[in-house]
Amino acid sequence: MDYAAYFAKHREEHLEELKSWLSIPSISALSEHKEDVLKAAEWLVEALKKAGLENVGIHQTNGYPVVYADYLHAEGRPTVLVYGHYDVQPVDPLPLWKTPPFEPDIRDGKLFARGATDDKGQLFLHIKAVEALLKEEKDLPVNIKFCIEGEEEITSPNLPSFLEVNKEKLAADAVLISDTSLVEDGVPAICTGLRGLCSLDVAIRTANTDLHSGSFGGGVPNALHALVELMASLHDERGRVAVDGFYDDVPELSPVMKEEFDKLNFKEDKLKAELGLDALYGEEGYTFVERIGARPTLELNGIYGGFQGEGTKTVLPCEAHAKITCRLVGKQNPEDILDKIERHLLSHAPTGARVSVDKREKGNPFSIDPTDHLLQKAADAYEQVYGKRAVFTKDGGSIPIVEAFSRILNVPVVLMGFGLPNENLHAPNEHFNLHNFDKGLLTIVEYLKRI
Amino acid sequence: MDYAAYFAKHREEHLEELKSWLSIPSISALSEHKEDVLKAAEWLVEALKKAGLENVGIHQTNGYPVVYADYLHAEGRPTVLVYGHYDVQPVDPLPLWKTPPFEPDIRDGKLFARGATDDKGQLFLHIKAVEALLKEEKDLPVNIKFCIEGEEEITSPNLPSFLEVNKEKLAADAVLISDTSLVEDGVPAICTGLRGLCSLDVAIRTANTDLHSGSFGGGVPNALHALVELMASLHDERGRVAVDGFYDDVPELSPVMKEEFDKLNFKEDKLKAELGLDALYGEEGYTFVERIGARPTLELNGIYGGFQGEGTKTVLPCEAHAKITCRLVGKQNPEDILDKIERHLLSHAPTGARVSVDKREKGNPFSIDPTDHLLQKAADAYEQVYGKRAVFTKDGGSIPIVEAFSRILNVPVVLMGFGLPNENLHAPNEHFNLHNFDKGLLTIVEYLKRI
């Protein structure tokens, strides 16, 4: 079968279909869009039915529903579970959009709309790939299941329990997700690692009230001094996290991984120039991509205390606050890391300061061995279509649901992305490059045929 | 003459008069009270005329006017210049006032009103003391000048230039100010030192935009890390300011001064309990009163950067801010200190961080030798009236105008206060204890007769 010809023939029709889905403002974070989110789920049901999938249905959760569909007629063949999401990010600031976020517009070979690449556009490729196979071959080379949620952009609060409850229904040999990106145009990538995440808020209190710096300055603890001293104690002079035991469960970089990172041929100078930085900074002894891909972090995301207005206020503030997140790798456990940080903070509390810690989010790191045959087959499929074999990357971000699939269904997760890093995810003017739309369709067909 | 009898006889009348002045909401900080501030100046003109003073007049400045009056008929005798202010602090939060701030109310032997002690009530004592002397003796034992401003609560922006221009008109042998307080009830005090002040804002910038902590965390500078590291570098582990040369012009505590501080018999445990503190904190080797009275400080008054909302935001902030004030002593020069701090901050800038410094306020420290005969005579007057000799204190606060009088008119400044530390200056329910009102009148008469 010539799928290139097939997709070329149906291109207009496919794009019109996708545009109709992108026109639905399914913003899960904003309750005023509740009807729109549900409408996007219904649209999806119809699209899956039209593609020829079976058992298409809407499954309620405590939040937005999960859309499920399957086609299980390839006896003795592996089962692939496709995950994606039909909800999208908010669109603020609206004035920065060149065309309205929910009036999809194609220009310069790109499709502009909220959700164009994250994730409606990428998910749509899977639906159309399956539709093509069913139309052209009246059958699929694998068993396939779709499990599509509507709460990814609000941290998937209900999906893990949905996976637990429906473990058997969702059982598969691989989970396939297209919600990541190529390294750069023409260089396909398969993400083999995502960092975990944990977060905490720190509060420092000194006196029972703010004090006048004339009457008390120099003689009583100042919550801001305590805060900067305590926060500065969290890193050492080599850029390492100075919390006891923080690196206990962090694997050293293997020569194989180092080689994969080197293959990326990352240009640190270019990044510096783009960000307007005099210097990059991080843990001594690692390159930028190694730091992002394979090393854990402890980052201050916010600090505040005392007077923030114009001019001068001679106050000794009695409270100060910091917000911290860690990115985790290897076998680091978020609970354990939060405990270790809390111990550090309490045991390093400066004189006269009471420190309290509020532990918040917890997500495990994810990683998969690039030599897994399902990943190698994905790299083969990319090579076939792109003329270039996919590199195996590690992403610094956290997609907790990936780790949840891997852990709850106990199955390899293949992150096969077709976006590009500069397609304005979560920002104004989100778009999807249509040559990757085209190649994505072919790559998925190729992949399903190869496994 | 029995001035005790005289003041007892006129007490009702005096208090009614003061209450009428206190009823005028002369809040200099709020432009909607402009007419009230001017009305308070006019009230003052009438009161000075009624007291028998001459050359009473309103002198324009670029802001609120200065009220001047004199009585210069004591040939060969010293001249005393009385300074005070007719403006008051704002009254927020209004609901915390038990009686309205501009409806003066006497209860439990205290006069409650905004300005009751700061400074209308205390300044009023000088007017009535002079009035009493002129009525009873038809003459004054000294030459006297009044120079009363209406902008003290907004940092006296126009008074220094008024002093410069009117140097000769205002020439005197002593400046007498009642705008401070006793150590505690029954323990009179003469303040012989006020700390200077300088302030600066610090801004730190890293990348040209906030960055996502997943994609960049651990590989680029974080403005908050740079801020806490830089701010923590400003003090050493002994609580000393770690800026090169900061202590160059700070005199060591003399045995005489140490003795004066010891005389205060300050209870550090009581303060700790009042403030709800586990521990006091400051420069190693000094007591609380020494730290406040005789040592300089560098204090953070505010810090902020990044996310301050609820929940977690995985952001690497690209800017961070701190607001700093220093209290200065001895010969420390605010310009010089600001330069030294700037040098420290720039030379300690963490990797990848650009530091900028905005220098703001500058005020010199003030101090006077307690053995000055004018101060000794003031202590004598207190002893006569209170039955207890005044102690010589150093106040940690800054009243820049005191240093300005001392420097521009080149004359000793006698800080002879009658307030109490807990009379809610600048706070709701400001009040003046009337037994100190009574004793204040007598002490001033006594002082004018003795010099």
Structural write-up:
2 copies of one chain form a homodimer. The longest helix of chain A has 20 residues, at 3-22. Chain A is built from 13 helices and 18 strands. In chain A, strand 4 and strand 5 form a beta hairpin. In chain A, the strands form 4 sheets. In chain A, strands 1, 2, 3, 6, 7, 8, 15, 16 and 17 form a 9-stranded mixed sheet that branches. A 4-stranded antiparallel sheet of chain A has the order 11-13-9-14, with helices on one face. Chain A has a 3-stranded antiparallel sheet with strand order 4-5-18. The first copy, chain A, is elongated and about 85 Å long. In chain A, helix 1 crosses helix 13, helix 4 packs parallel to helix 12 (400-408) and helix 11 (373-386) packs across helix 13 (434-450). Chain A has 2 domains: 3-194 and 365-450, Aminopeptidase (3-Layer(aba) Sandwich), CATH 3.40.630; 196-250 and 296-361, Alpha-Beta Plaits, CATH 3.30.70.360. Chain A has helices spanning 3-22, 34-51, 120-137, 159-165, 213-216, 223-232, 255-263, 268-275, 288-294, 334-347, 373-386, 400-408, 434-450, and strands at 54-59, 66-71, 79-85, 105-107, 110-112, 143-149, 174-177, 189-194, 196-205, 211-212, 297-306, 315-316, 319-328, 354-363, 366-367, 391-395, 413-416, 431-433. The model of chain A has no long low-confidence stretch (mean pLDDT 95). At the A-B interface, strand 10, helix 5, helix 6, helix 9 and strand 11 of A face strand 10, helix 6, helix 7, helix 10 and strand 11 of B. Chains A, B: GO terms for molecular function: dipeptidase activity; metal ion binding. Chains A, B: One of its GO terms (biological process) is proteolysis. Chains A, B: This is Dipeptidase. Chains A, B: Keywords: Dipeptidase, Hydrolase, Metal-binding, Protease.
